[in-house]
């Protein structure tokens, strides 16, 4: 499958390398592919991942991953050209974070009655947006392993077939079957859940070796 990853931060790079390793064709999007920002990474973890503009990457992807800071999400979608998303599965890993105080956890820029997931779906009304992978730190996004145990991934979105694709891709990346919370408005709960992960990250000296699991009996 052609997977277009919008974003060259840690999340974009981890997912691009992970998808490439399991056999997908991957393009990672950046404002200026000629700037050399990805050269070292492409020589190692990102071997044979192509780099393109945001527009080239969105056009390339049959599935598109949105992995950019919330402050720049709309700008990146505009650069990518919203028509390149029409009909496609968009896996939205963003959290709408605002960093107000140095050394303190960020806060959510929106919530309760709205969410980043819903905003992304409104910006891309013809796309099939799924909130996905926003509740785990990037070092654990591919083949998560906690002493032999695996965390859970919760998702939400309006389109069942898009969520099936999101589940299939998560399982290919080494996750158990995802837990579907419902329509995209459930991002209102998944984005605060990410704040639990992030706050614990700050409280434990930026260790990051934690993830979320639903226990059942
Ligand atoms: N970090 C984690 O472990 C983690 C876990 C779960 C979810 N998330 C969420 O995942 C998303 C991605 O996080 P990240 O830390 O990997 O990425 P990031 O560093 O926040 O974003 C990197 C991307 O932002 C683009 N960018 C920066 N300034 C821009 C501007 N002025 N206009 C347009 N684009 C601009 C960069 O473009 P260029 O490539 O051109 O420089 C780059 O592709 C965030 O929403 C985050 O909250 C993060």
List keywords for this structure.
217 residues, alpha/beta, eight-stranded mixed beta sheet, two-stranded antiparallel ribbon, 7 helices, 10 strands, globular, binds NADP nicotinamide-adenine-dinucleotide phosphate
Summarize the structure in words:
By secondary structure, the protein is of the alpha/beta class. It is built from seven helices and ten strands. The strands form two sheets. The protein has an eight-stranded mixed β-sheet, with helices on both faces. The protein has a two-stranded antiparallel ribbon with strand order 6-7. Helix 6 links the parallel strand 9 and strand 10. Helix 3 crosses helix 4. The longest helix has 17 residues. The radius of gyration is 16 Å and the shape is globular. The mean pLDDT is 97. The structure holds NADP nicotinamide-adenine-dinucleotide phosphate. NADP nicotinamide-adenine-dinucleotide phosphate binds next to helix 1 and helix 4.
Summarize the structure.
With 217 residues, the protein is of the alpha/beta class. The chain has helices spanning 10-21, 39-43, 54-60, 70-80, 116-123, 160-172, 187-203, and strands at 2-6, 25-29, 50-52, 63-66, 89-92, 97-98, 107-108, 128-131, 154-157, 179-180.
